[in-house]
Each structure stands twice: as structure tokens, then as C-alpha cells.
Amino acid sequence: MNSMKIGVVGCGYWGAKHIRSLLELGVCDVVACDSDASTLANARRAYPGIATAGSLQELLEADVAGVIVATPISSHFDVARQCLISGKDVLVEKPLTMNLDQAEALVEIAERRRAVLMVGHTFLYHPAVEAVLNLITSGKLGDIFHVDTARLNLGLFQPDTNVLWDLAPHDLSILLYLLGDGPVSISARGGAHVDPRVHDNVYIDLVFPGSTTAHVHVSWLEPRKIRRVTVIGAHRIVVYDDVSPIDKVWVYDKGIAIESEPADPDRHHLSYRHGDTTILHTAPDEPLQVEQRHFVQCIKERQRPKTDGFAGLQIVQLLDCAQQSLDAGGDRVDVGELVVPPDPHLGSGLEQIVALRLARAAHAASRENLRRGAEGKQT
Ligand SMILES: NC(=O)c1ccc[n+]([C@@H]2O[C@H](COP(=O)([O-])OP(=O)(O)OC[C@H]3O[C@@H](n4cnc5c(N)ncnc54)[C@H](O)[C@@H]3O)[C@@H](O)[C@H]2O)c1
């Protein structure tokens, strides 16, 4: 018996992993909830130590301190909102919500209530991503030219979203974390091959301040599971292969430089450097468990999580831009200002989020007025 209870809403594929990992973590009791009775019965059979609740209301009355929301994306907003309003701290799976309005509203509720709102950007709790970040910040890679990511496998098709919103949150959150900045512009192209209403293969191009570029490929149509991040620096190239069971981070002392001919400075040639390849040791910690430990710590110490609601909102802002581009056949979309993560005190981002909501509402109202004016002229 632990002093803290954590609820898990949604006991499907990922929720079951949350339950397993929480039990292994051993710092809280688990109350599982699923609207599907047979899924809940399966969870009870697999993990006899847990308590169960047949409805969200029942879970919220079960004295849980925090709730992990692992339901399909279309229900994140409603479930998380009810939890926050009931005074619970919340960890919502990625992406935070289905759209910007919902993300802003959720962050505002959390800020007003000084509640912990965390988003499951799991890879930011991965020791391998931390190792890549250390290589970048130590300057060992030199200036970053380009980052290429691939997150591909066969399915799983989600009933309520496309591959962009399902898989790209991971790559976009890794990119912001590694590069320490948001992109200036985004363009996205893709195809809806299996179901013509749902994009199942998407390529995203991002331009960052300076000359760094990035490319993200997400797909539900690849026969093999591929999870790869390649960071190309002026001095070294690093490949993080998450599918590799042990050796995940490879550092290549390879590169290409343009050198001018000493005899004739106007003439140049390319010089290829083929140095050593090093495999970095990374701790075998399970990212999901590191994330859960952080959630529990934030609840206890009333801290803003590393991947808080603002971090979730930033990714929804980028997904929204990428979706606009996808809908427009790949047009470049300017990202504009991303929200800025506030200081660690819960509630300190309230002014920022209120100002953002008001500005977006005013912008939407003026566009609507323009549209009505144009319609009026036509009739
Ligand atoms: N962080 C990661 O690496 C990662 C990996 C996979 C999935 N996910 C996320 O986890 C979430 C769930 O994905 P999944 O693949 O487990 O889906 P799933 O369909 O396997 O499971 C969802 C479960 O939620 C239940 N459910 C739906 N609405 C509910 C409600 N209102 N109240 C209670 N239960 C409800 C369903 O009955 C189902 O059992 C998604 O947001 C997904 O993006 C995250």
C-alpha cells in the first residue's frame, strides 16, 4: 500500500504499458479505468494488484492524486478537462489535444488551478535523446546542418486521426528539444492511400532560424519498424536508432569540407573525412518509467513538468501548421510565435495563455468579419 494513488484512464495498448510500468515503479497504487468492460477485466486479470473503476466519475471519486489519460486522441480534451476540474493533476498522452482551441483551453484551466498538466512526449525522457542533446550542446557535432527523422511501421491505423497527429508529435518534440528553438516555417506533403480520408504517409520539411533544416517522415505503410534520428553536424554525424536493442547512439567522425587550392584561392575541392565511429553507452532506463517518476515528483513537489501543457501546446501549434500545409498540397506555412514555456511555478503562465487565446479569438473574429463583408458585396 502506497501513500499516493494514480489513475490510468484507457487500458488499451498504451494504457496497459502505463499500468505495468507504474506497478514496477512501486511508488503509488494504481486505479485503472476503461469504458470498455472487457478491456478493464483484462487489465484486472493481468495486474491483480490494481483497483478498477468502471467510469471516469468513479475514478475521480477514488481519491487519486493524479490521472494518466491514455484514451484515443479525440477524447483527450474531455477526459483531461474533467480530471483538472475535479482537482486532479494530469498526464495526457501525446498529442495533448486534437486542435489548438482545446490545447489552449486545457492549459488555461491548468494554469488557473495551479494544477500539474503534463504531456506524454516520452522520448524527452529517453537517455539516448539526452545523449544526443549533450553531443550537440558540447559543440562536438559543430554547427547543425540538418536533422532527419523516420518513424515508420505497418499501422497501427488510429480510428480518430491521421499519421501526422499520431506519430509526428514524437519527432517534433525531439527536434524542439535538440535544437532548442522552434521552426520558422513548415511544409508537409503526403498521401491517403488506404483510406482516402486519412493521411497514412507524410513528409514534413522544417526550416529553423539560421540555416538548420529538418525533415520528418512518418508512415503507417512501412513493413519494418524504423525509428531513426540523424543529426548532421559540420564536425560529426550522430545516428540514434531506437529499434537497435542496445547500441542506440552512433557517432560518426565523418564529414565533407570545401577547401580552397593553396596555389589558386579561387579554386576549391571537396575533402572527405573518414574518422572513427563510436557507439555511446546509454543507460537502459525505460523512458515511460522515467516520465512517470517525473509526474509523481511534480505532483508531490508542485513543480511544472519538463513536458508541461505549454510543451504540449507548442507541438499542437506545429501539427496545426503541418496540417494546414498538407491540406494546401504542401504550401509553406509560417509558424509565427510559439508559446514560451513559463518559469517552474505552477500558474505562472496564466497571463501568457490568456493573451494568446484573446489574440487568436480577435484574429478569428476579424477574419469572419472580412468573410461576411466579402459575401455581402457579392449579393
Ligand atoms: N507515448 C507513446 O509513445 C505512445 C505510444 C502509443 C500510444 N500513445 C497514445 O496513447 C493513447 C491511447 O492509444 P492506444 O494505442 O493505447 O489506444 P487503444 O485504442 O489501444 O486504447 C484506448 C482505450 O481507451 C478506452 N477509452 C476510450 N474512451 C474512453 C473514455 N472516455 N473513458 C475511459 N476509457 C476510454 C478504450 O476502450 C480503449 O481501451 C493515444 O493518445 C496515443 O496517442 C502514446
Written description of the protein model:
- With 379 residues, this protein is an alpha/beta fold.
- The chain folds into 2 domains: 5-121 and 287-365, 3-Layer(aba) Sandwich (Rossmann fold); 124-280, Dihydrodipicolinate Reductase, domain 2, CATH 3.30.360.
- It is built from 10 helices and 15 strands.
- Strands 14-13-12-11-7-10-9-8-15 form a 9-stranded mixed beta sheet. A 6-stranded parallel beta sheet has the order 3-2-1-4-5-6, with helices on both faces.
- Helix 4 runs parallel beside helix 5 (100-113) and helix 5 (100-113) packs antiparallel against helix 10 (350-378).
- The longest helix is centred in the C-terminal third of the chain and has 29 residues, at 350-378.
- The mean pLDDT is 95.
Radius of gyration: 23 Å
Strand fraction: 25-35%
Number of strands: 15
Looking across the biggest beta sheet, what order are the strands in? 14-13-12-11-7-10-9-8-15
CATH architecture of the largest domain: 3-Layer(aba) Sandwich
Helix and strand element order? EHEHEHEHEHEHEHEEEEEEEHHEH
- Distinct ligand kinds: nicotinamide-adenine-dinucleotide
Distance between the amino and carboxyl termini? 71 Å
The domain count comes to 2
Give the secondary structure arrangement, pairings included.
Blueprint: E1 5-9, H1 13-25, E2 29-33, H2 37-46, E3 51-53, H3 56-60, E4 66-69, H4 76-85, E5 89-93, H5 100-113, E6 117-120, H6 127-137, E7 144-154, H7 163-179, E8 185-191, E9 201-207, E10 213-219, E11 221-233, E12 237-241, E13 249-261, E14 264-280, H8 287-301, H9 309-327, E15 333-334, H10 350-378
The chain binds nicotinamide-adenine-dinucleotide (NAD).
